[in-house]
């Protein structure tokens, strides 16, 4: 019995030493750069985690936020087009609770300008940020719980060990080349490459009318069309808009917010028109509230790109009914720089009225 008890104590001791060793390794290497910037840093496409480290380690004056519609922008392109020092914080599938929380952290770290791609579906009802299972508020806040979860994470210990091996001069180049194909998250050598498409990406292959029309047929199929309105509820969406967007903007009157409605293809709205008209009404009514409220705020410039017919009606610009190509990314930055499609605070619904007329008049192209 004494031998068994001794073995258990030894096992516990060894386990504790291993856990402490892993924690010390993670602290020393700090793959997320949560404690200190690193010249040998690598980055991850897991943006909900990576953003916590970027906010702590990067120098920036502008925060760029959005969902998957903003995820492929490159920080270097944003900097050149808008003459800023940007930090891209876009998160695929993110809701307004997550976006507002992350933006608050970035503002607290020095962002004096926010560029925000505001999607209507980001205001769907979801968990409160404190209970969000997909974004660790403790990691961003660097609470004891958050730091412990980081330091004692087996995944982070693995990333730290790989980073340590990659720092050895003879191994750096081969391991850097191999990283995208290995089971490690921190594989990107340049922060500019986080969730950006490769520079030699074949745009025509992935963004074309055939794909867009196929996506339209898929989402409007009778067996799937009910999902067009999933999560859409006018009162809840207005409530989240007020709590997550308006309240954030009001708390930071010294920060300039450039907010824009992304240029969805016209088929996004035609799908609602034909298969879920109640959802379209929610979107239109919500847009009216959002445009009216935002244009009343002195530190907001609102831009609406949804009625630019030469873009939104050209289905070759899209990979589905909402996601536009990098060519349109560049146009968006140009429009933001010029202010060409800025919403007039004295007439906040003009662009919406133009969009409504286009939706009503649009007829599907013949096969």
Name the descriptors.
51% helix; five-stranded parallel sheet; 5 strands; single chain; alpha/beta; globular; 367 residues
Chart the SSEs and their pairings.
Layout: H1 2-29, H2 47-57, E1 62-65, H3 75-82, E2 86-88, H4 96-108, E3 113-117, H5 137-141, H6 144-151, H7 154-166, H8 169-178, H9 203-206, H10 209-220, H11 234-251, E4 256-261, H12 266-275, H13 277-294, E5 300-304, H14 309-312, H15 326-338, H16 350-361
Parallel strand pairs: 1-2, 1-3, 3-4, 4-5
Helix pairs in contact: 1-7, 3-15, 4-11, 10-12, 11-13, 12-13
What does this structure look like?
β1, α3 and β2 form a beta-alpha-beta unit. The chain has 367 residues and is an alpha/beta fold. It has 16 helices and 5 strands. The mean pLDDT is 93. Strands 2-1-3-4-5 form a 5-stranded parallel β-sheet, with helices on both faces. It is globular. The chain has a domain of 164 residues. It is 51% helix and 6% strand.
Brief rundown of the structure:
The protein is built from 16 helices and five strands. The protein has 367 residues and is of the alpha/beta class.
């Amino acid at each position: 019995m004494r031998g068994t008890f001794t073995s258990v104590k030894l096992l516990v001791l060894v386990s504790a030493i291993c856990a402490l060793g892993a924690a010390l390794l993670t602290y020393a290497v700090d793959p997320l750069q949560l404690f200190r910037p690193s010249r040998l840093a690598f980055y991850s496409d897991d943006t909900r985690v990576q953003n916590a480290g970027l906010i702590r380690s990067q120098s920036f004056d502008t925060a760029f936020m959005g969902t998957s519609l903003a995820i492929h922008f490159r920080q270097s392109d944003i900097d050149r087009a808008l003459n800023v020092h940007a930090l891209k914080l876009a998160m695929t599938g993110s809701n307004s609770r997550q976006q507002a929380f992350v933006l608050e952290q970035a503002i607290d770290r020095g962002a004096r300008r926010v560029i925000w791609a505001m999607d209507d579906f980001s205001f769907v009802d979801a968990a409160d940020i404190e209970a969000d299972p997909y974004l660790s508020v403790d990691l961003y806040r660097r609470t004891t719980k958050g730091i412990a979860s980081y330091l004692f994470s087996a995944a982070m210990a693995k990333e730290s060990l790989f980073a340590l091996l990659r720092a050895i001069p003879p191994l750096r180049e081969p391991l850097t080349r191999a990283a995208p194909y290995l089971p490690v998250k921190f594989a990107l050598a340049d922060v500019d490459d986080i969730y950006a498409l490769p520079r030699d990406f074949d745009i025509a292959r992935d963004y074309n009318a055939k794909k867009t029309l196929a996506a339209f047929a898929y989402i409007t199929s009778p067996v799937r069309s009910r999902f067009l309105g999933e999560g859409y509820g006018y009162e809840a969406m207005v409530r989240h808009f007020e709590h997550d967007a308006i309240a954030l903007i009001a708390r930071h009157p010294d920060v300039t917010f450039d907010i824009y409605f992304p240029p969805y293809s016209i088929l996004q709205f035609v799908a609602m028109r034909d298969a879920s008209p109640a959802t379209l009404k929610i979107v239109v009514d919500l847009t009216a509230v959002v445009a009216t409220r935002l244009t009343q705020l002195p530190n907001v410039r609102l831009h609406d790109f949804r009625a630019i017919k030469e873009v939104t009606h050209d289905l070759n610009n899209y990979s589905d009914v909402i996601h536009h190509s990098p060519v349109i990314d560049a146009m968006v930055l140009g429009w933001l720089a010029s202010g060409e499609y800025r919403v007039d605070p004295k007439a906040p619904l003009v662009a919406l009225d133009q969009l409504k007329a286009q939706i009503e008049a649009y007829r599907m192209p013949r096969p």
